[in-house]
Amino acid sequence: MKNCLYFPNMKWMYLFFLICSYHISVFAQVPLKESIPLSCDTFYGVDDFENLYYSTENVLYKKSKSDRLEFYDIQLGDVTSVDIINPLKVLVFYRDTQTLVILDNRLNEQQRLNFNSLKPQRFIDHVRLAGERRLWLYNLDLSRLELYDYANQKLVISTSPIKDQVLGLQSDYNFCHLITENGIITFNSYGSETDRINEKIKLPVAFDFEHLGFQTVDGWKWYQFDKEFRFRESELITPFSQEYSPESLYLKGGKLYLYHQKRLHVQTINLNKS
Predict the structure, then answer these.
(1) Single pTM value for the model
(2) Angle 123-125-130 (CA atoms, 0-180°, nearest 5)?
(3) Does the N-terminal peptide bond of residue 37 adopt cis geometry, omega within 30 degrees of 0?
């Protein structure tokens, strides 16, 4: 009788041990400098002053150590993307209503652009900042990248049609990197393609001007943008388990921010300057 009672207990203890061992093996491969709780729908990134940007139920928050600011407009629908490359000019894009709201560093509205009024009319799928008065726009109707001067309301340049499906954009003002289903295509401010990475990418992608990181079916890969404006594969080895797939990634000043299961993990990584 004792053996009959003892066996199922040992069975459940063994199963519990396996589950715990799996989670330990996954997270033990992620040497994290810091981990903080953060419950949100989407994490967007961190600025130079370590303010956190994230959204919950379409409310954008900017959180510092002592304050929390917010912006929302329920009439605009769901937030599609937030660009904080310039914290003095935060871009909040609403694809469904084709509206871009530009905010200042206090999340006060500076300007609102309605892409429905563009001539000729087109549907904008992705938006990134391209300088003081310019935007990178992905025109879904014509499958092309456009550089748009919103101050003067005119198209500056446009690329030839992109054959691959575009999943997102990353930019560093002078260059725009199109994240596609088959890799990454880089264009300069003249509309010329300067580089292409042919990799099957698992979103999200981490990017910070000179460095690019993402996950593939074979593991994590890192690239460095060199002086010839091309990405070359870096020797950096990211010690993440293949099973570790964060919901959001953000790279800033040698720190990698990974949002996963309501926690923001911060890891310092050594990135060589080109």
Answers:
(1) 0.85
(2) 110
(3) no
Would you list the domain boundaries of the chain?
204-274
* Helix or strand holding residue 202 (H, E): strand 201-208
Does residue 190 have a pLDDT over 70?
Answer: yes
d(C-alpha 56, C-alpha 168), whole Å? 21
What is the Cα–Cα distance from 178 to 269, expressed in whole angstroms? 24
**255 contacts 271 by C-beta, under 8 angstroms:** no
Three state DSSP letters for 24-74 = HHHHHCCCCCEEEECCCCEEEEECCCCCEEEEECCEEEEECCCCEEEECCH
Nearest to 141 by CA among 170, 161, 156, 157: 161
Question: For position 19, what pLDDT does the model report?
Answer: 40
Q: Where are the beta strands (DSSP E) in 95-200?
A: 99-103, 109-114, 124-129, 134-139, 144-149, 154-158, 166-171, 175-180, 183-188, 193-198
